[in-house]
Each structure stands twice: as structure tokens, then as C-alpha cells.
């Protein structure tokens, strides 16, 4: 038995990570790939049978994992976003939830042909749009921060509210069926709702303020802070859940929101830890839940169920959000975007297994249709909207360009000339500097600039600064360059942060700096001297050659692929040069022109 469970855990973990990697590599929605892998290792191959393999541990394990996932979503919500998008968010939650629930009930009852009991349960479940699906899609599509804030806040709050509402409605329906009475179960449900919400708010807010106070007072050592926070999440989830089912999700969401807005110095470390943990949990949970499905269950989906799902995506959501946000501070593009994007995620999947099981035990009509319809909604919304979100956001002007952007820290004539060259190639470039005077030359050349400190961006900072993909630190302070690279390496990757070569007397370890660009000797002063002496940037086509290796005549700066991916030249970069990459070089004025070089078609590499 132990060996079997060990094999199951290994298979689930491997399938989860494989699914995430495949989704990243192919640019697919991760949840869609994970569902396919879950079906493959579950009902199709029987490698994993969750009900048998995990037994009584399955439901508590899923519940705790979902609690940690919802907490991570709350940890990413900052009140500064609420100040910018507050009216729209309040409308989406305050009016959007009842409107979505009401319209979903009508569609389920009249189009899907479900009983009123099942219809009201579907209405409470399918209003949930979880952050576990929303946030990866927003990152993938590079949606602007204001439009993303609407979906992020709605997703986290809907997760908690919808989960509690679903459990209370389930208990109400089961009590009604058992007693044949409406009044008493309704009163009990309202009392439970008030009690559960009050307890969850007390635990979530209280734990948030207490944990923040302890960490600020240095009562929790640094190495215990992340484990301490996760332990608190588990404890308050369990405490609230034992008093009122699923109210633990409200508690952990409030706990996360409270911590996120207490200005803790360690908040970024907590976010990174919980983000990694959430990726692992989401991967495993979707694989496990998909493995519980039986292909025969989908045979229950007929034409009425298909029409219901179509109405849910194409009518219910757009109408509910349009009406809810009418005369709000959201413009028509944001309203259209939010109305068409509402993927369902892990919380809906977990609730569906609970609801389907309880309804089947009560022998309620239509219980066998709940699970396939809910999973049909998950698969439909994730796959359709996962592929739609990027083109839709770009068409509405709510997303940045699809090409990766480069942020250059430090404004001087050399960085301005490099930015001009890359801009002509279609690569988005932003130069940031704390000196307004230093930025004047770049501004005069119509280059995107940011006046401020990159380590403390303001609310109105450019989108590129808050979601940068490549970084080149080129200030006159070598230690500051290293600090900037260290700060952003954990979020965008060590292979995407570069700094200019530093002085010989400094000895930064590779873990405390970025990759050294261009090779030793090409310091900021050296590059500026070369520029003053007449050196210029030039773009070499894939089949052009240049005086590679002769650093007295030219040096490679970066390589640029047709899709916009770039690699800054460095002795620490060992990537093979693709045949279709352009090379940006910095060359002396007496170097051969492109036309002079075209007689020799030898390959060239930007790595120095």
C-alpha cells in the first residue's frame, strides 16, 4: 500500500510539472493541458484512482490545497489597484454576483432542463471565476494593470463568496428535500451565512493584523516567516471550515489581502514562495480532480447541456457584467473584455465533486449531470478564453505588444542610442533613471522613459516597468547595478538580467549580480568613449558577417529573433545562435558596411 501511494504521488507530481512545462513551451492554457494529462493517467490508463489511492484523505487534502491557493490570490491584491479600479470592482462583485447567479439559474432551468434544486446549485457554483486560472492567463496575454485588476479582484472574492454560497445552498436543498419545508431551512441557511461570514472575517482579519505585527516586531525569524504564514493559512482555514463549511476560503482570502496591504518588507519574498507553492498545488490538484472523472459521465451531456454552456459563456456573463458595470468608471473596452473572460478553475472543480456526490446520495433528479456539466464549463471556458484573451486584449488596446520588452536602467548617450536602434527593430524599450536631467536626451529622441526609482515604482509607473521581461543595468554605480539585477532575477529569471562590466577591484559572486554584458573591459565609460569616437550601432542580417572577435573594430550587443526574443551578448551566455537571428553590433566608424560584408556568408554569433 505504501509503495502504491508513493508511485501515485510521483505520477501526479510528474504529470503536473510536465503539464506546466508543455503549456509554457507551446503557449497553451496550463489548466487545459493539466486536465488532459489527468484524464490520461486517471480514467484512461487507471494509473491513478484518487478515491482508492487517497481514501478519506482526498477531500481534506483538496480543501487545504484550495485554501492555500485562494490565500495566494489574496496576497496579490493591493488596495492601490482598488483605488484605481474600485468602482468597477465593487460593481462586478456587488451587482455582478447576483446578476450572474440569477441569469445562470434561468439558463439552467429553462435551457438546460435542470430541476430548480440543481439549477440553483449550478448558479452558485458557476459564478466562481478563480485566480488560479485568471492570473496565468493575464500574464500570458500581458493584459494592462487596470484591466487585469478587475479580473484579479473579482476572481479572488468570487472564489470565497461562491464557495460558501454553494455549500449553504447545498445544505438548504438537502434539508428542504428531507423535511419538505422551505421556511426553516431558509432561516437556517441565512443564519449559517451570517455566522460563517462573521467568523471568517474575524479569523482572517485578526490573523492578518497579528501576523503582520509579529513579523514587523521581529518575533518571527526570517527562515520561519514563509512556513509560519502557510501554517497560519492552514489553521484559520480549518478553524473557519469546521464551524461553517467553506467559510475558510473567506478567512484565508481576507488574511492574504490584509498581509498584502500592511507594507511588510518581506511581502515580496512571501509572494514568491507562495506563488511557487501554488503552481505545485494547482498542478497536482487539477491532475487529481481530472483523474476522478469517468468518460461515461460525459455521455450525460446532450444538446440541452450544450446550449446551456453556450448561453453561460455567450449570454449570461456578458449581460451580467454589462448591466452591473453600467455608468461605472469602466470604459466600453474594459466592460467588453471582462464580459468575455471568465474561466472557471480549481475551486469550481473541487465543489463539483462535493455537490455531485451529495446530490447522488440524496437521490436527487439530475445529480448525475452536475459533474460533467461543470467540467464541461471548465474545459470550454479555459480552452476558449485561454486562446481568446491575448488577441482580444490586443484588439481592444488593453495589452502591451506581444514582443518582449527591455528595460534599461540608467540614461546616457550610449543607452539612448541602443534604445533608438531597438525601437526601429520593433522591440519595446524603456529607459528609467532617477535623474530628470539625464533623461532629457532620451526624451528628445522620443524614447519611452520613466523618471523615478526602479526599486520603488509608483502607482502611475509605466506597464513595462511593472511587468518587465529583460533588464540591462547600465548606471554609473556597479554595486547598484548588481543590486537591481539581484532584485529582479528572482521574478524574470537570472538569464534575463544583465549589467555592464564592473571595476576589477569588485568581486561580485554570480548569485549577487546579473550576467556581465559584452565581456570584461566594456564598462560604461569605455562604451561612452567609443560612442564619442564615432562608434555606432548596426543591425546585421542573419546571413551577414561582421568583424567578430576583433573587439577593436566591433562588439556584439545582442541577438534578436523574429518573435522578439532577445539575448544580450555575454561570456556567460552559451546559447547557440539560431540561423534566423539578427545581431545588433556596436562598431567603429571604419568597419566594413553591410554591403561590403555580403560576399562572405559565414555564420556569426553575438556571444563574445
Walk me through the structure.
With 608 residues, the protein is of the alpha/beta class. The chain folds into two domains: 2-395, Up-down Bundle (Na+/H+ antiporter like fold), CATH 1.20.1530; 406-597, NAD(P)-binding Rossmann-like Domain (Rossmann fold). The protein contains 23 helices and ten strands. Strands 3-2-1-4-5-6 form a six-stranded parallel beta sheet, with helices on both faces. The protein has a four-stranded antiparallel beta sheet with strand order 7-10-8-9, with helices on one face. Strand 1, helix 18 (413-424) and strand 2 form a beta-alpha-beta unit. The longest helix has 35 residues, at 145-179. The termini are far apart. 47% of the residues are buried.
Question: Which keywords apply here?
Answer:
608 residues; alpha/beta; Na+/H+ antiporter like fold; Rossmann fold; six-stranded parallel beta sheet; four-stranded antiparallel beta sheet; disordered C terminus
Topology summary:
Blueprint: H1 2-26, H2 30-44, H3 50-54, H4 58-75, H5 79-94, H6 96-111, H7 116-125, H8 131-141, H9 145-179, H10 183-216, H11 225-243, H12 247-260, H13 267-291, H14 303-324, H15 332-340, H16 346-361, H17 367-395, E1 406-409, H18 413-424, E2 429-433, H19 436-444, E3 449-451, H20 463-466, E4 470-473, H21 478-492, E5 497-499, E6 515-516, H22 524-532, E7 536-540, E8 554-560, E9 566-568, E10 582-587, H23 594-597
Parallel strand pairs: 1-2, 1-4, 2-3, 4-5, 5-6
Antiparallel strand pairs: 7-10, 8-9, 8-10
Helix pairs in contact: 1-2, 1-13, 2-13, 4-11, 4-12, 4-13, 4-16, 5-9, 6-7, 6-14, 7-9, 8-9, 8-17, 9-10, 9-12, 9-16, 10-11, 10-12, 11-12, 11-13, 13-16, 14-15, 14-17, 16-17
Amino acid at each position: 500500500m505504501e509503495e502504491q501511494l508513493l508511485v501515485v504521488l510521483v505520477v501526479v507530481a510528474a504529470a503536473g510539472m510536465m503539464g506546466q512545462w508543455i503549456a509554457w513551451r507551446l503557449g497553451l492554457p496550463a489548466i487545459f493541458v493539466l486536465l488532459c494529462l489527468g484524464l490520461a493517467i486517471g480514467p484512461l490508463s487507471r494509473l491513478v484512482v484518487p478515491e482508492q489511492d487517497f481514501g478519506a484523505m482526498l477531500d481534506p487534502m483538496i480543501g487545504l490545497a484550495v485554501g492555500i491557493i485562494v490565500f495566494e490570490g489574496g496576497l496579490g491584491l493591493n488596495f492601490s489597484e482598488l483605488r484605481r479600479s474600485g468602482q468597477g470592482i465593487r460593481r462586478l462583485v456587488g451587482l455582478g454576483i447576483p446578476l450572474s447567479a440569477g441569469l445562470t439559474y434561468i439558463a439552467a432551468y429553462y435551457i438546460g432542463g435542470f430541476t430548480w434544486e440543481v439549477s440553483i446549485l449550478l448558479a452558485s457554483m458557476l459564478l466562481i471565476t478563480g485566480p488560479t486560472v485568471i492570473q496565468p492567463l493575464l500574464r500570458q496575454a500581458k493584459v494592462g494593470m487596470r484591466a487585469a485588476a478587475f479580473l484579479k479582484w473579482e476572481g479572488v472574492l468570487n472564489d470565497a463568496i461562491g464557495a460558501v454560497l454553494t455549500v449553504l445552498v447545498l445544505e438548504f436543498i438537502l434539508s428542504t428535500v428531507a423535511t419538505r419545508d422551505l421556511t426553516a431551512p431558509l432561516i437556517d441557511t441565512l443564519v449559517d451565512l451570517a455566522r460563517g461570514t462573521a467568523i471568517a472575517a474575524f479569523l482572517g482579519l485578526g490573523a492578518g493584523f497579528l501576523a503582520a505585527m509579529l513579523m514587523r516586531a521581529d518575533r518571527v525569524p526570517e527562515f520561519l516567516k514563509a512556513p509560519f504564514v502557510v501554517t497560519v493559512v492552514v489553521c484559520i482555514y480549518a478553524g473557519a471550515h469546521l464551524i461553517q463549511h467553506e467559510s475558510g476560503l473567506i478567512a484565508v482570502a481576507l488574511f492574504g489581502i490584509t498581509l498584502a496591504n500592511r507594507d511588510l518588507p518581506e511581502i515580496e519574498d512571501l509572494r514568491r514562495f507562495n506563488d511557487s507553492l501554488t503552481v505545485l498545488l494547482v498542478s497536482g490538484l487539477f491532475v487529481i480532480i481530472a483523474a476522478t472523472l469517468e468518460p461515461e459521465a460525459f455521455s450525460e451531456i446532450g444538446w440541452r447541456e450544450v446550449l446551456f454552456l453556450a448561453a453561460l459563456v455567450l449570454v449570461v456573463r456578458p449581460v451580467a457584467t454589462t448591466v452591473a458595470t453600467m455608468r461605472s468608471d469602466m470604459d466600453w473596452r474594459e466592460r467588453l473584455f471582462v464580459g468575455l473572460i471568465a474561466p472557471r478553475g480549481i475551486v469550481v472543480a473541487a465543489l463539483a465533486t462535493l455537490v455531485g456526490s451529495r446530490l447522488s446520495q440524496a437521490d436527487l433528479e439530475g445529480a448525475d449531470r452536475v459533474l460533467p456539466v461543470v467540467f464541461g464549463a471548465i474545459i470550454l471556458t479555459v480552452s476558449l478564453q485561454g486562446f481568446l484573451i491575448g488577441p482580444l486584449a490586443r484588439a481592444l488596446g488593453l495589452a502591451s505588444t506581444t514582443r518582449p520588452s527591455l528595460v534599461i536602467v540608467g540614461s546616457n548617450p550610449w543607452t539612448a542610442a541602443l534604445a533608438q536602434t531597438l525601437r526601429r527593430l520593433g522591440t519595446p524599450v524603456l529607459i528609467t533613471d532617477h535623474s530628470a536631467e539625464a533623461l532629457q536626451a532620451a526624451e528628445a529622441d522620443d524614447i519611452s522613459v520613466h523618471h523615478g526609482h526602479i526599486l520603488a515604482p509608483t502607482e502611475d509607473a509605466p506597464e513595462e516597468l511593472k511587468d518587465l521581461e529583460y533588464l540591462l543595468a547600465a548606471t554609473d554605480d556597479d554595486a547598484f547595478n548588481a543590486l537591481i539585477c539581484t532584485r529582479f532575477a528572482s521574478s524574470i529569471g537570472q538569464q534575463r538580467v544583465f549589467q555592464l562590466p564592473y571595476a576589477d577591484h569588485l568581486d561580485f559572486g554570480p548569485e549577487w549580480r546579473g550576467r556581465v554584458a559584452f565581456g570584461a573591459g566594456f564598462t560604461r565609460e569605455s562604451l561612452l568613449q567609443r560612442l564619442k569616437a564615432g562608434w555606432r550601432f548596426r543591425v546585421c542580417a542573419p546571413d551577414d558577417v561582421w568583424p567578430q572577435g576583433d573587439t577593436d573594430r566591433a562588439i556584439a550587443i545582442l541577438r534578436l529573433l523574429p518573435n522578439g526574443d532577445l539575448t544580450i551578448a555575454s561570456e556567460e551566455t552559451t546559447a547557440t545562435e539560431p540561423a534566423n537571428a539578427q545581431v545588433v553590433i556596436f562598431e567603429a566608424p571604419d568597419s566594413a558596411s553591410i554591403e561590403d560584408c555580403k560576399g562572405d556568408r559565414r555564420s556569426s554569433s553575438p556571444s563574445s
